[in-house]
Amino acid sequence: MNAEIFQKACEGDRDAFSTLIETHYDFIHAVAWRWCGTANDAEDITQDVCLRLGRAIRGFRGASTFRTWLYTLTLNAVRDHQRRTARRSRDEQRLAKDPLYAAASCERDDGGDDTLWTAVRTLPEKQRDAVLLVYAERLSHAAAADVLGCSEKTVSWHLHEARKRLKDLLNREAV
């Protein structure tokens, strides 16, 4: 790799950074492909590495070769992607067992879940918002937390409280 191009990229030169990406894009993609085994995931990881590289390049200190550093950056992105994928799969399996999720997935043509959604609309604001974002809009807890301006744990707590209230509300209506 041309040291001048690398130095200019570190200093914020967009053309030099673009050249650096073009030079190493195939390497990044090949590493991602070998680790994850799917074209779509490899492409997502490669794009993620390019973004990370833009933020991290100024922190490269030369303790190793650039390619070794890039290899580490790519493997970290692969691991992060694998963790996100595993977490998403666990969340989907957990949600599939949740009655709120099942109701949100049903078609409402027959009006069968109108009772549930009417009850959801009576919840306190934060609980209602959490339920609607996670179950109706199908956002992750993290994305719902961003929208609501709180932590993921807070979203989870609001959902827990909402389930308890909804159980009581729906049991009273059934009697």
Biggest β-sheet strands, sense, barrel? none
CATH homology superfamily name of the largest domain: RNA polymerase sigma factor, region 2, helix turn helix motif
What is the rounded distance between the termini?
75 Å
Strand content: under 5%
Q: What structural class do you assign from the helix and strand content?
A: mainly alpha
Q: Total helix count?
A: 9
Mean pLDDT: 84
Question: Over the alpha carbons, how many angstroms does the gyration radius reach?
Answer: 23 Å
Question: Would you identify the CATH architecture of the largest domain?
Answer: Orthogonal Bundle
Low-confidence stretches: 107-112
Would you give the CATH topology of the largest domain? Answer: Rna Polymerase Sigma Factor, Chain: A
**Overall structural domain count:** 2
Number of strands: 0
Give the H and E element order. HHHHHHHHH
**CATH class category label of the largest domain:** Mainly Alpha
Helix content: over 70%
General shape: elongated
Topology:
Elements (H helix, E strand, L loop, with lengths): L2 H8 L3 H23 L2 H18 L9 H31 L2 H7 L8 H8 L3 H12 L4 H8 L3 H23 L1
Helix pairs in contact: 1-2, 2-3, 2-4, 3-4, 5-7, 6-9, 7-8, 7-9, 8-9
GO molecular function, one term: sigma factor activity
Family: Belongs to the sigma-70 factor family. ECF subfamily.
Pfam families: Sigma70_r2, Sigma70_r4_2
